[in-house]
Amino acid sequence: MLNNFIQSATVKGLGIAAGADANIATPFAKAQAAIQSVAKEVSNIAPYVALLCFVIIGVMWMSGQRGSQLAKSWAGKVITGIAIVVLAVLLVNWFVSIFGGTSNVSI
Length: 107
What we know:
Layout: H1 2-8, H2 29-61, H3 65-98
Helix pairs in contact: 2-3
């Protein structure tokens, strides 16, 4: 809608004419690209970090009673962390789609 307005009219006092700067129509394009980039990088590295954490938890579990208790508490935190990362990726895709963009971020 804003694109059509900018292309078909001149906004007096602002100096915006037909064919003006395209950044006016997409003010959040750079922010959207940055958010997608961060989400993509986090979603790429998260499975490997989670796997490393589970390996450490497994070794701790075998190290005795105190290590086992600590490993049990860490396991819940690692599972919660994985859920947060997955939810964050889903939210980024949802927010981008709300503002009319397309997102290629996935787990």
